[in-house]
Structure formats: structure tokens, C-alpha cells
């Protein structure tokens, strides 16, 4: 089960900043899932990072987003800290305002099919 908490803060300037924190739990054990519970090897993480980079490039060209691709390349996803939503067919990675992009166009949920890393 995924539980999402959304918040918005105005810190001055032209717009507020949206924030989302997602908590994912195994309903049987009550244990919280982290990304490193699902993506367990460096090879899987590299595949995911390559996929996300490609999706960012596509979104920058076709959907008028402004991801910091160079920043993502240097950092990539961190297995323990990345925000994601668990769904039946895929994960959805959550990118909040200004975390990986210049423009404040809300929180972006990027679909990450399980087939990318399974």
C-alpha cells in the first residue's frame, strides 16, 4: 500500500513549492518498503538510472519540462531515499518542484515499469 502526503509551501518569490512524501508498506508484515527493497543490485540501479535519464530527455523535448539531466547523471536515483508509489504494473517515481528541474510545474510522476529492472 502506498500512502501519499502532499503539501505546499510559499517561501517567497513568484510561486509556492509543492512537496510529496510517499510511504509504501507491506500490508501483511507492516514493514515499510524502500526503493532498495525492490532494486537490489547495482546492475538493476544502473538500468533504472539509464531509463529515467532517457525519459527525462523525452519529456524535456516533447512535454516542455526542464529536467536537470546533467545533475541527474551525476547523482542518479538513490535507492534508500527516492520517493515512489507502488502500483500493480509499475512504480511511479516522484519528482518534486525544483528537485531535478528548473521550472515549478508541480510534482511529476514518472512511470517506471517493473520490466526495466526485473
Q: Briefly, what CATH class of the domain at 35-116?
A: Alpha Beta
How many β strands by DSSP? 6
CATH architectural designation of the domain at 35-116 = Alpha-Beta Complex
Radius of gyration, Cα only, in angstroms?
A: 15 Å
Quaternary form: single chain
Q: What is the CATH fold-level name of the domain at 35-116?
A: Actin, Chain A, domain 4
Largest sheet: 3 strands, antiparallel
Q: Give the DSSP E fraction (strand runs of 2 or more residues).
A: 25-35%
What string gives the helices and strands in order?
EEEHHHEEE
Q: Helix/strand/pairing class, anyone?
A: alpha+beta
Distance between the termini: 20 Å
- What is the share of helical residues? 25-40%
Contiguous low-pLDDT stretches (5 residues minimum) are none
The count of helical stretches stands at 3
Mean pLDDT: 83
Task: List its salient traits.
single chain; 118 residues; alpha+beta; Actin, Chain A, domain 4; three-stranded antiparallel sheet; globular
Secondary structure layout:
Blueprint: E1 2-9, E2 17-25, E3 32-33, H1 35-38, H2 42-62, H3 69-75, E4 84-86, E5 90-95, E6 108-113
Antiparallel strand pairs: 1-2, 2-3, 4-5, 5-6
Amino acid at each position: 500500500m502506498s500512502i501519499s502526503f502532499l503539501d505546499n509551501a510559499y517561501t517567497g518569490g513568484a510561486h509556492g513549492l509543492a512537496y510529496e512524501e510517499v510511504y509504501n508498506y507491506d500490508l501483511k508484515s507492516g514493514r515499510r518498503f524502500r526503493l532498495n527493497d525492490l532494486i537490489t543490485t547495482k546492475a538493476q540501479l544502473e538500468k533504472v538510472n539509464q531509463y529515467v535519464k532517457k525519459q527525462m530527455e523525452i519529456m524535456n523535448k516533447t512535454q516542455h519540462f526542464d529536467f536537470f539531466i546533467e545533475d541527474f547523471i551525476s547523482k542518479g536515483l538513490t535507492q534508500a531515499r527516492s520517493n515512489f508509489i507502488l502500483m500493480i504494473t509499475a512504480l511511479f517515481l516522484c519528482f518534486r518542484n525544483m528537485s531535478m528541474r528548473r521550472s515549478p510545474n508541480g510534482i511529476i510522476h514518472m512511470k517506471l515499469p517493473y520490466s526495466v529492472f526485473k
